[in-house]
Amino acid sequence: MFIDWRQLPAATDALQWAGWIWRGTAVWDKGNSRPQKGRFRQQAEYIVWGSNGDMPINRPVPCLPGVFKYGNPQNRIHLTEKPLQLMRDIVKITEPGGRILDPFAGSGSTVLAAVLEGYSATGIEVTDHYAELARERIRKELEAA
Q1: Beta strand pairing status for 99-102 and 2-3?
Q2: If you ran DSSP here, which 8-state letter would residue 135 be given?
Q3: Distances from the Cα of 80 to the Cαs of 31, 66, 96, in angstroms?
Q4: What is the DSSP string of 67-124?
């Protein structure tokens, strides 16, 4: 889950309440952000991640960085759309051939990244409009790949 600092406690609690194991956080440094006089820039989001089961340390997965630096996509379908390369990088925390769940699918970036990296994925999107846009985006990009 990508969240800002305001939702960090609630998101980690919800993950655990749902029966998942909270594995930690990473950071997405978005670079540019709107300045707020007298405040820190809100240029980062937290990546809260967990698993529905064991993740042995000896599984064939690389050591990933704790901070990912990518700018926001230019032509976004969804207001909170993430860069495809960012998502391709972070799905690699999953064991090869594993399954990825995105409960907030939005524009479909996570599902698309997962499939392009060789994983199976399930995306959940509450808004019919965005669910259709995500399906269409994934279909077009997979046909082009």
Answers
A1: unpaired
A2: H
A3: 15, 20, 27
A4: EEE-PPPSS-SSTTPPPHHHHHHHGGGSPTT-EEEESS-TTSHHHHHHHHTT-EEEE-
The CA distances from residue 47 to 7, 13, 82, in Å, are 11, 14, 11
Residue from 142, 58, 48, 143 nearest 90 by CA: 48
CB 117 within 8 A of CB 85: no
Phi-psi region of 142 (alpha: psi -120 to 50; beta: other; left: phi over 0): alpha
Residue 25: closest CA among 46, 3, 5:
46
Structure tokens at 35: 């300045």
Sign for the pseudo-dihedral over CA of 106, 60, 49, 44: negative
pTM of the model: 0.90
Q: What is the pLDDT of residue 75?
A: 87
At 79 the pLDDT is 85
pLDDT reading at 145 higher than 90: no
> Token pair of 116, please?
């392009």
